[in-house]
Amino acid sequence: MMNRRTLLVSATASAALAALGITPSALAASGIKLGDARPFSFDALIDQARTLAGKPYAAPAAPPPEVLDRIDYDAHGKIRFRPENALFADGPGQFPVTFFHLGTYFRTPVRMHVIDRSRDGKGNAREIVYEEGYFDMPADSPAHKLPRGSGFAGFRFQESRLGDQKAKDWKKNDWVAFLGASYFRAIGELYQYGLSARGIAIDVAEAGKAEEFPNFTHFYFETPEGKGDTVTVYALLDGPSITGAYKFVMQRGKAVVMDVECALFLRKDVARLGLAPLTSMYWFSESMKGTAVDWRPEVHDSDGLAIWNGAGEHIWRPLNNPPQTMASAFADDNPRGFGLLQRDRLFDHYQDGVNYERRPSLWVEPRDGWGAGAVQLVELRTDDEIHDNIVAMWVPKAPARAGNTYRLRYRLHWLADEPFPSPLARCVATRMGNGGQPGQPRPQGVRKFMVEFRGTPLEKLPFGVKPEAVLSASRGKFSYVFTEAVPNGVPGHWRAQFDLSADGKEPVDLRLFLRLGGKPLSETWLYQYHPFQSPTGYGA
């Protein structure tokens, strides 16, 4: 309900907006308070980021830490944004915006702004001023101690309509959220959140250096014009080593597609500069699981890294939960795309009500030539599903030096599958066990692999013809190598079996694809095997 104070503020704002040629209804900002109008353009935001990069880093002013400390997990969970205060809540056919509150785990204030266009097309931005009245919170909530204008932690776009009516009430369903540092995520076509994307990754798993987490410090929401399925948001990034300006054009259709444009400016040298980074969780799967580590068969948000490299090769790299932090680099020139995917979609493989079988796959599609560099995969050791332990990103070959500037355009596809699948057979499972043959003593230090492929090229094999398994390894010896149709009656479902013997504890990089008559029938399977990490127990 609008009180007298809000009414007075709105009346004053209306007069100011009218002078700019902006109608109050265009903002559709029910129940929120706005600051003064200031000119805005993406070019100006880029200039602001460039100017910031030439100055020493200054962390955003934060509310009293003793207050934030008291807004713990329990207290934060009791704070709810009131839907009647949502930005664009009154706009017909538009996506309302609601905001996250600050707390112990989200301490950096983020400034939110709404943009509207005057008759001459120029943009004017006004800050959304934080007030506790936007939220429902208990009378004894420590959040009452925060001063007016403290800022927000993040935001999300709510649904205003869905064709299949799986979410009938937009107040309870959102489709994209930006929260914490430069993290953001979206639901896929299966209506489920999962992995996250980031604006930037700085020195992930870089020896002797702490990872840096720059923040999106300001967001700017373009006021929608009538009905539509697309929203536009701008962001300012700031951190000790980097600044940047971002433009997100996000489309809510069958799933979510984001066109991202950014300009980045380095304050300092960066050892590992990760562009278009993705972050996910992989604990265990059919490939590797410690004895009785958990009652579920598999637990992961993503099960593999897919790459479509500049040479046109499709690569599938199953994820690992390694015994120690590992970083793998897949060198390339102008990649066509990469992504962290969830290929296993069977509920019986998870047996969990948190919907791991519905987690989205996320694909990065470069919109310009990215030049020379590598898709890098960082895998961290984890013993629980609450930790994100997987990072995939593009790292340019040229050193990231202070003063460098980067302009980047790419598209993010939040889908159930990759948007540009290979026409070749795809890897559908990676299994391991003890090497050797049944009924005979099992040789020490030998691991058996079963890699399954399925797809049209294998369906078309003439009766009695077997594909060839083309194998290579960074070290070790192969034995008992053969291929066979999986005896399940599914056309085009084949597996390659082999034993690997490798001394020592260093990881072994494996490569495999199926071939017939010199022509590939499958995508390329890559795997990093840790000889001292047994399928029956980590480190066994």
Automatic annotation (TrEMBL):
A GO MF term: catalytic activity
The UniProt record lists the keyword Aminoacyl-tRNA synthetase: no
Domain Glucan biosynthesis periplasmic MdoG C-terminal as annotated: residue spans: 40-529
Biological processes per GO annotation: beta-glucan biosynthetic process
Residues making up the signal peptide according to the UniProt record: 1-28
Source superkingdom: Bacteria
Pfam families: MdoG
UniProt cross-references to SUPFAM superfamilies, sorted A to Z: E set domains, Galactose mutarotase-like
GO cellular component term, pick one: outer membrane-bounded periplasmic space
Annotated metabolic or biological route of this protein: Glycan metabolism; osmoregulated periplasmic glucan (OPG) biosynthesis
Family matches, as Gene3D superfamilies: 2.70.98.10, Immunoglobulins (2.60.40.10)
UniProt keyword annotations, A-Z: Periplasm, Signal
Entry's localization field: Periplasm
Family under the similarity heading: Belongs to the OpgD/OpgG family.
Protein's UniProt name: Glucans biosynthesis protein D
Species annotation: Cupriavidus yeoncheonensis
Gene name tied to this protein: mdoD
